[in-house]
Amino acid sequence: MKYIIATNNPKKLVELERILNPLGINAVTAKQEGISLADVEENGKTFKENSYIKAYAACSKSGLPAIADDSGICVDALNGEPGIYSARFGGENATDSDKNELILERLKDKSDRNAHYTCAITCVFPNGKVIQVEDYCHGEIALQPEGTGGFGYDPIFLYEGKSFGYYTAEEKDEVSHRGKALRAFKDELIKYLEDNNVK
Fold first, then answer.
1. Taking the C-alpha atoms of 60, 45, 76 and 10 in order, what is their torsion angle to the nearest 10 degrees?
2. CA atoms 190, 32, 85, 137: torsion sign
3. Is residue 102 within 8 Å of residue 90, measured between CB atoms?
4. Helix then strand then coil, % of the chain, to nearest 5
5. In whole angstroms, what is the distance from residue 98 CA to residue 117 CA?
6. 85 and 42 in contact (C-beta within 8 Å)?
7. What domains appear along the chain, each with residue ranges and CATH number?
8. CA dihedral sign, ordered 36, 98, 48, 18
9. Closest by alpha carbon to 28, among 48, 47, 54, 8?
10. Rounded to the nearest 5°, which phi and psi values hold at 132?
11. Collapsing DSSP states into helix, strand and coil, what is residue 172?
């Protein structure tokens, strides 16, 4: 069975393939199916809403079950920013390094450095059924970037005192927001497939 993954991020595709392939599911991107999602406006107010918008659009355009995730970092002292705007924080052309430096700059006079990552995953089926999960990883913002691993905000996110920039992919999978959400999603998907006798 073929599922469309509504992402242009190759790292997200690899993570999803890892849980979908053993279930007999062939994960493909919208681009591989010749479908453009460029006109999809992520105008939701939550991670769940935005992941649903992307999955619904991909399902509607392809006629295939579609999976999308929306994730980001929420900093307590910044009133939860950048939140759903994590990918666009600092402007469309800002690099990961630019975004990290912007957060550090805005926190320089603040003692509260608590933050959490959020990941919402939605699967929309052609029959209208929806699977949706969300999970979190709580930590703190470092005083400066640490480590060269991961991507995005990982070098400034401390989990149990250690930057995600120092974690291996396997270590990060065990504790990260996306790792936990993917495991919850896998459980829900298996239940859906069994309940609906989908082979």
1. 20
2. positive
3. yes
4. 40, 25, 35
5. 18
6. no
7. 2-195 (3.90.950.10)
8. positive
9. 8
10. -145, 130
11. helix
Residues 51 and 132: beta-carbon distance below 8 Å: yes
Q: Which two tokens stand for residue 97?
A: 């390094």
37's torsion region: left (phi>0), alpha (psi -120 to 50) or beta?
Answer: alpha
**Residue at token pair 């912007």:** 102
70 annotated active-site = yes
Q: Please, where are the H alpha helices in the chain?
A: 10-20, 47-62, 96-106, 169-175, 177-195
Q: Hey, what are 124's tokens?
A: 């929309």
Q: Spot the catalytic one: 39, 69, 70, 98.
A: 70
Whether the pLDDT of residue 169 is over 90: the answer is no
Which two three-digit tokens encode residue 78?
Answer: 């910044």
Considering only residues 103 and 10, tell me which one the structure prediction assigns the higher pLDDT.
103
Q: How far apart are CA 76 and CA 124, in angstroms?
A: 32
Q: What do you get for the CA distance between the two ends of the chain, in Å? A: 8
Reference 48, options 73, 71, 15; nearest CA is 71
Q: What is the pTM of this model?
A: 0.92
72 contacts 176 by C-beta, under 8 angstroms: no
Tokens 């936990």 belong to which residue? 180
Mean local confidence (pLDDT), 170-185:
91
Q: Is the pLDDT of residue 164 over 90?
A: yes
Closest listed residue to residue 104, CA positions, set 157, 149, 151, 147: 157
